[in-house]
Design goal:
Blueprint: H1 2-24, H2 27-44, H3 47-53, H4 60-72, H5 76-111
Length: about 110
């Protein structure tokens, strides 16, 4: 009897953990994390000053060097937020490409 209860608790902990992980990976939570990180970055960094100090977009080497130096010479909190923001943007982009690729295959199949 006690063994059954322990087994049940173990299984339910796993179920709750999976539910929590799936909830955190949902699109709504990703958008929320993206929005919060954007808000915190704009509160921590003077975006107009960054744009004003940035070199011309035509010179890609200078722009990339500017962003690397800006990233390395900012606060750790801003660096962490930028990594989180970049991760969510790339993740969302991959999901969008995946959805469009899946839909285009379904569309091609429907036409044939």
């Amino acid at each position: 009897m006690k063994h059954e209860q322990q087994m049940r608790e173990y299984v339910m902990r796993r179920v709750y953990a999976l539910f929590l992980i799936r909830s955190l990976l949902s699109p709504a939570s990703r958008v929320l994390a993206l929005g919060v990180s954007l808000l915190l970055i704009t509160l921590s960094v003077s975006v107009p000053n960054v744009i004003h100090n940035m070199p011309s977009f035509l010179n890609i080497a200078d722009v990339s060097r500017f962003f690397v130096y800006a990233f390395l010479n900012t606060q750790v909190v801003v660096q962490v937020l930028l990594v989180i923001l970049t991760t969510f943007v790339v993740w969302t982009g991959v999901d969008i490409v995946r959805v469009f690729a899946k839909n285009s295959r379904q569309f091609d199949t429907a036409l044939n």
